[in-house]
């Protein structure tokens, strides 16, 4: 095919780092996708434009579970200053009038909770998902804005859970808030894919 051996070796090395193949003497063996590393998420999302709704749903499910765990751990362990900062960010989320303002407050809240929980594995998982996942969703125009009729009550309950350090309730409410995001994003992706499929059939 006219490809230099060095380029082929580099490509195989990259696939091996993703966990998609295993290089052995005499050649490479393809590994099952479920044995790959987390770094494969980004390339998989890039296979379709916009990304595959089912894959996005699965990644969001993991992200929301991790974030809810981070909130629970933070409320169990953090100091009063962290609680104060979290409540300030919650107030900004409630006051957000557009998607940009919402994300400007939501992203620091996620970061604060993950950093304050004291769990290295959660912090690393969040960085990996942010680099591979959230940046791609934003590029695709899929934001996180929650309808105000749902956002208001959730934020008020979250603020109370933070103030009283009710870790289990805070975790449950955060998951509920994230689930609203998840359903909205997946529905938008499904709608876009359905429109494109109809256009292709014409």
| Helix-residue proportion | over 70%
Cα distance, first to last residue?
A: 36 Å
CATH topology (fold) name of the largest domain: Four Helix Bundle (Hemerythrin (Met), subunit A)
Q: Biggest sheet, open or closed, and with what strands and sense?
A: 2 strands, antiparallel
| Count of spatially separate domains | 2
Give helix and strand order, one letter per element, not per position.
HEEHHHHHHH
Strand percentage, roughly?
Answer: under 5%
Based on helices, strands and strand pairing, what is the structural class? mainly alpha
Q: What's the shape?
A: globular
Radius of gyration: 20 Å
Integer average pLDDT: 87
Strand and helix layout:
Blueprint: H1 5-17, E1 21-24, E2 27-30, H2 41-45, H3 53-77, H4 80-95, H5 99-116, H6 120-139, H7 148-164, H8 167-201
Antiparallel strand pairs: 1-2
Helix pairs in contact: 3-5, 3-6, 3-8, 4-5, 4-7, 7-8
Characterize this entry briefly.
By secondary structure, the chain is mostly helical. It contains eight helices and two strands.
Description:
With 202 residues, the protein is mainly alpha-helical. It has two domains: 5-36, no CATH class; 39-201, GntR ligand-binding domain-like (Four Helix Bundle (Hemerythrin (Met), subunit A)). Helix content is 74%, strand content 4%. The chain has eight helices and two strands, in the order αββααααααα. It has a two-stranded antiparallel sheet. It is globular, with a radius of gyration of 20 Å.
């Amino acid at each position: 095919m006219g490809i230099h051996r060095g380029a082929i070796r580099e490509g195989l090395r990259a696939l091996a780092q993703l966990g998609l193949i295993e290089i052995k003497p005499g050649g490479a063996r393809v590994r099952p996708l479920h044995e790959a590393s987390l770094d494969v998420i980004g390339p998989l999302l890039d296979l379709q434009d916009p990304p595959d709704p089912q894959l996005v749903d699965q990644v969001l499910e993991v992200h929301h579970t991790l974030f809810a765990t981070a909130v629970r751990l933070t409320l169990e362990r953090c100091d009063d200053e962290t609680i104060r900062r979290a409540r300030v960010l919650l107030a900004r989320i409630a006051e957000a009038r557009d998607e940009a303002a919402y994300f400007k407050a939501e992203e620091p809240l996620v970061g604060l909770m993950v950093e304050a929980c004291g769990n290295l594995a959660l912090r690393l998982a969040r960085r990996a998902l942010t680099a591979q996942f959230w940046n791609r969703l934003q590029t695709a125009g899929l934001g996180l804005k929650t309808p105000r009729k749902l956002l208001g009550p959730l934020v008020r309950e979250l603020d109370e859970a933070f103030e009283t350090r009710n870790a289990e309730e805070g975790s449950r409410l955060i998951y509920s808030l994230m689930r609203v995001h998840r359903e909205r994003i997946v529905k938008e992706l499904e709608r876009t894919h359905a429109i494109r499929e109809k256009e292709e059939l014409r």
